[in-house]
Amino acid sequence: MLLYEQEVSLPVKHKHNGLLEYLSKEVLKQIPVGKIPVRFVVTRTDSKEYHCELGVMSDIKYNFVPSQSSIFEFSRKNYENTDQFNAVLLIPTGIDAAIGGHSGDGGPVARLLGSACDTLITHPNVVNAADINELPENGLYVEGSIIARLLMGTVGLQKVRSNRLMLVMDKHEDEYFCEATINSVSAARAAMGLDCPLIVKMDEKIRMDALLSSSGRAVGKIEHLERLCELLTDYRNQYDAVAISSLINLTNTTHLEYFSQETINPWGGVEAMLTHAVSMLFNIPSAHSPMMESKEIMNMGIGIVEPRKAAEAISLTFLHCILKGLHKSPRIVTNSSDFGRSGVLSAADISCLVIPDGCIGLPTLAALEQGIPVIAVKENRNRMQNKLEDLPFAPGKLFIVENYLEAVGMINALKAGVSPESVRRPLNQTAVKEVDSVTRLLREKSTSEIIEFITEKDKKKKSKIS
After folding, report:
1. Is 156 found in the same domain as 234?
2. I need a surface site. Which of 1, 232, 404, 451 has the fewest CB within 10 A?
3. What is the pLDDT, as a whole number, of residue 442?
4. Cα-based distances in Å from 130 to 14, 102, 234
C-alpha cells in the first residue's frame, strides 16, 4: 500500500457556488480507479483555477477497506444545538503557519480560545511539542481528518475517561532509541496514569519520506503501509487508540537547516498523511511521533534555537505529547443515530471554526455548507493563497480578524448573541429597502403573469381617465 501526494488544477466555478459538491465531483474524476483520496487542500485560487493538492492511497489490499465511501461525503445538519458553545481550532499541518507551524507553538492559542468556550476541539499539530502538550482541560485531541468528518456531518465524537493505548514502534537499528521509546511510555504510565497494555515493534518497517510540494507545503510519501495495517488488525481488541513512533527519512542537512534557518517543519506533512490513512481505515484515534535517526543527529550541535522550535531541540523521543493527547482522545462515533445523544458531539454542536486566513480544505468547505461561522486569523501567515471573502458565505458567517486575541472577542460576541458591528464605530445607518408591487411581481411571477398584470393595470388606468 502506497500513500503519495498528487496535484490537480480545476477550473474556477462562477461565484464559487456549490463549491464542495463541485470539487468533490471534479477531484474524483482525476483519481484513477482503485486509488482513494485521504487528504485534500486548495493551496491557491486565481482567476482561472483552483490549485489543489491531494494525499492519495493506492495499491489497497482487499482486507483493508476504508470505513467511509469518500472524504468528500457530506451530511447536512438539521438543527443547531445552542446549549453549549463548542469551537474547533485548526492550524493545518505542513503549511508553515507563523503560529502553530512548528513544535506545539499553537498551544497558547488553544489555551486562550479554550477559556472562551465550553469545549475546544483541536488536533495534534496545534499542541504537540515533543515532551510537552498544553491542551486545555476542556480540550479534545482529535486527528485532523476526523475533525473534517465531524464538520462534514458524517461522524460524532464521544468523550471518554481514558483509552487503552497501543504503541507501534520501529525496531531501530540502534537499541538505544528503542529503550528510550519504551522508557517514555513507562514514564507516562508512572506519572500520568496512562494505560498502555501493549508495545509492538515493527521488524518490517513502513517507509516514510518527507517531501515538499510545489506550493511549499510539507507532504510526503509512505510505502508498505500494509505492514502497519496488519498489526493494527491483529491486535484490534487490545487498544482504543494507537500511537506510532517510526523513522522519517530526512537528510542531516535538513535537520541543521530547520533549526538554524527560517524553514518549514519537514516532519508534519508525512505524519498527517499517515494518521489520515489510519483514521480512514480503522476509525480509531491516532497520532505519530518521529524516531530519532541516529546518535549522530542526537548529538548534533544546534545551539540555542528559535523558541518555536525549542521543544524539539531538547527531546529524545518526541513521544510524550502524543501519549498525553491520546490518553483521553474521544471515541469516533460513526452511527448517525447516536448523534445528539448525551456526551456525543456532532456537526450540530459546533458553534464556530477558527482557522488561519487563506486556508481552504474540507473543514472550511464543510463549515460553509453547514452554516457554521468561520473566524479567519490574518496574523497567522502561511503558504496558502486563497481569499476566503470571495466564497459565498451567508451574512454573519465569515469573520476575518487580525489576531487570536481578536478571535477570542469574536467568539464571545457569537456566544453572547451580539452583532460584532454593534460594538464598533462608526455604526452604519439601519438599512431600509422598499419593494413595490411591480418589483415583487417581477421576482415571483412568470412572464405571462407579469404581462397579464401590467395589461390589467393599464386598462384600469385608462378607465379612470375616461
Report:
1. yes
2. 451
3. 67
4. 45, 11, 29
- Run of H or E including 347: none
SS3 314: coil
Cell of 189: 504510565
Taking the C-alpha atoms of residue 71 and residue 363, their distance in angstroms, rounded to an integer, is 11
50-103 confidence digits (pLDDT tens): 999 999 999 887 677 676 678 999 999 999 999 999 999 999 999 999 999 999
* Grid coordinates given for 449: 403573469
Residue 33 and residue 106 in one domain: no
Q: Write out the three cell numbers for 396.
A: 454573519
> What are the backbone dihedrals phi and psi of residue 328, each rounded to the nearest 5 degrees, phi first?
-125, 25
Is the CB of residue 177 less than 8 Å from the CB of residue 292? yes
Based on the fold, state whether residues 217 and 310 are members of the same structural domain. yes
Neighbouring-strand partners of residue 210: 220
- Type and span of the H or E element at 378: none
Q: What angle do helix axes 404-416 and 107-114 make, rounded to 10 degrees?
A: 20
**391 within a domain of the structure (yes/no):** no
Q: Which structural domain range is residue 204 located in?
A: 99-333
Strand locations in 229-296, DSSP E?
241-246, 286-290
Backbone angles phi, psi at 290, to 5 degrees: -75, 140
- Compute and round to an integer the Cα radius of gyration of the chain: 25
| Of residues 15, 134, 171, 145, the one with CA closest to residue 93 | 145
Q: Could you report how far apart the first and last alpha carbons of the chain are, in Å? A: 87
CB atoms within 10 A of CB 420: 13
Question: Residue 457 and residue 438: Cα distance in Å, rounded?
Answer: 11
Q: How do residues 430-465 score in pLDDT, each as one tens digit?
A: 999 887 766 666 666 666 776 777 777 677 766 666
**Contact present, 344 and 320 (Cβ < 8 Å):** no
